[in-house]
């Protein structure tokens, strides 16, 4: 299974910042050390071209990120302190998601050891999301005629408001988000299907809701490509999650999604999205499960 990764995914960040920036390099090393991935399966992306970036973002915003000209309010909303390394890592990660889509179309499944930054809007970043990598990737692959219909499965605990907004009037893209109903963002533009769960939802109820939703969507919508945002923040121990999944329950979620999609012979892209477990090691172990499950299934 080929995946996108670059050492440049780790940007400069204050040590006391809540966002676990070092999870990207940590996950890369963890998967290699345990033989889940081979060095030959790691494909390093370049930075996404500006012309591709502005297919989902405004030229003003894309340029402001690159040049560091966001105003204070915009930077606070993004939740990450601007640096040149942040601008570079954001463009690298977007290209990583584009590349993962192409690799999935060739191989059946692929991943990006980053991505899933679903809160970013066309003209702003928010919720630790700079660019909406999934939106850019879908638009690039559609323009080049690699795909027509695309499905987004967003299992991050926070609703994918940016992705929902960008594709609100696009019937070729089906956006599905299963999330904490009372959690951020508090204004939720409607996805094609939103499943909002109550606080403290546990494994069994989560799995039932997920299976039911996937079966319903795939009965009527047959995509050329599926992007899976496997945020680990539904875990009970997550700083921001408010749901109550166990680590085993999260692993079963990965199995449900990967099995449901690949058994239908639909190309699948695995993306990290969010997660704020108690320690960096906990975060890495939880993120690694989607790749471990994929390998167990023979990919």
TrEMBL record:
<dbReference type="InterPro" id="IPR037138">
    <property type="entry name" value="His_deacetylse_dom_sf"/>
</dbReference>
<dbReference type="InterPro" id="IPR000286">
    <property type="entry name" value="HDACs"/>
</dbReference>
<dbReference type="GO" id="GO:0040029">
    <property type="term" value="P:epigenetic regulation of gene expression"/>
</dbReference>
<dbReference type="Pfam" id="PF00850">
    <property type="entry name" value="Hist_deacetyl"/>
</dbReference>
<keyword id="KW-0378">Hydrolase</keyword>
<dbReference type="GO" id="GO:0016787">
    <property type="term" value="F:hydrolase activity"/>
</dbReference>
<dbReference type="InterPro" id="IPR044150">
    <property type="entry name" value="HDAC_classIV"/>
</dbReference>
<dbReference type="InterPro" id="IPR023696">
    <property type="entry name" value="Ureohydrolase_dom_sf"/>
</dbReference>
<comment type="similarity">
    <text>Belongs to the histone deacetylase family.</text>
</comment>
<dbReference type="GO" id="GO:0004407">
    <property type="term" value="F:histone deacetylase activity"/>
</dbReference>
<dbReference type="InterPro" id="IPR023801">
    <property type="entry name" value="His_deacetylse_dom"/>
</dbReference>
<feature type="domain" description="Histone deacetylase">
    <location>
        <begin position="17"/>
        <end position="283"/>
    </location>
</feature>
<protein>
    <submittedName>
        <fullName>Histone deacetylase</fullName>
    </submittedName>
</protein>
